[in-house]
Design brief:
alpha+beta, five-stranded mixed sheet, 7 helices, globular, binds adenosine-5'-diphosphate
Length: 264
């Protein structure tokens, strides 16, 4: 009697193993496909500005540009395009560092208000250019959060640069901090910009995802900013999300762990 039961168990186990194998195969296929897509995206994003640099340099070398204004405009374009390349490389470098998980993850106690103030100082010129007013609403007596300050400032910069970029002149950005629960604080960053449709909201945290409208050469982003922000926030044990309405504005929120004295 035991025989058939053991046999049935064995068959069940093999069946189970088969399923797991299939699952991991399809996982490998998926990650292989996304790796290919990643490489294709990177090549495209490098090739476009490089081609443009090449053609402008050639035009200058040919000596066909005799008008000094045009000459300056060509040089300016070359500078802009090389900046795009260097931003892209910088973003890719950050992502690969985060992916490898090799950087020392050593968070420490920081107060959100000082992180936010430092981030805003960094963005002063962009804010000034678009005459954007930033209102910071701090909840009183919030405890410190446990973060790596440079990484966390990168998160705020990435979210705020988008908020500035996708807002009209003279609009307003509101940053609000609050206590989410016993273990997390929450930061809301709201803009009155062009907003993101429900469909696009599902994808904005994916690598290289840009909403179609923003896929134009004057907009330098490679679609990596929010995926970098998400990776960093999750590395800290927090979450990131979005609420938005097309043509009304967007709110990005993040949760960050409260610093505990017994840590480290
Ligand atoms: P990018 O480098 O293109 O800004 P991100 O990952 O930072 O890439 O953002 C992805 C896309 O999400 C952007 O291209 C833009 O279309 C959209 N997006 C991000 N933030 C906002 C915002 N505050 N308002 C409107 N659209 C936004």
């Amino acid at each position: 009697e035991e025989g058939p039961i053991e046999f049935r168990q064995l068959a069940k186990n093999i069946n189970e193993m088969n399923k797991q194998l299939e699952e991991s195969f399809s996982q490998i296929k998926r990650s292989e496909a996304s790796r290919r897509e990643l490489v294709a995206n990177i090549s495209h994003d490098l090739r476009t500005p490089l081609a443009s640099i090449q053609s402008f340099v050639e035009a200058l070398q040919d000596g066909i540009v005799d008008d000094p204004k045009t000459y300056d405009r060509y040089l300016e374009t070359i500078k802009l395009e090389s900046n795009r390349i260097s931003y892209l490389i910088n973003d890719l470098f950050q992502l690969s560092e985060l992916d490898s998980g090799q950087e020392n993850f050593e968070p420490d106690a920081y107060h959100l208000d000082s992180l936010i103030v430092e981030t805003l100082q960094h963005l002063a010129i962009q804010l000034e250019e678009k005459q954007i007013d930033v209102e910071v609403l701090m909840s009183d007596h919030l405890p410190a959060v446990s973060v790596m300050p440079e990484k966390m400032k990168r998160v705020f910069v990435n979210i705020l640069e988008n908020a500035i970029r996708f807002s009209d002149k003279n609009s307003k950005i509101v940053i609000q901090t609050s206590r989410e629960n016993d273990t997390f604080l929450k930061v809301n960053i709201s803009d009155q910009g062009q907003g993101i449709s429900d469909e696009n909201q599902k994808h904005v945290f994916e690598r290289f995802y840009r909403v179609e409208k923003s896929r134009n050469p004057s907009h330098g982003g490679a679609g990596l900013g929010l995926s970098i922000a998400k990776t960093i926030v999750e590395r800290h044990g927090g979450e990131i999300g979005i609420e938005s309405r097309l043509n009304e504005g967007s709110t990005f929120w993040i949760t960050l762990p409260i610093y505990r004295n017994d840590e480290g």
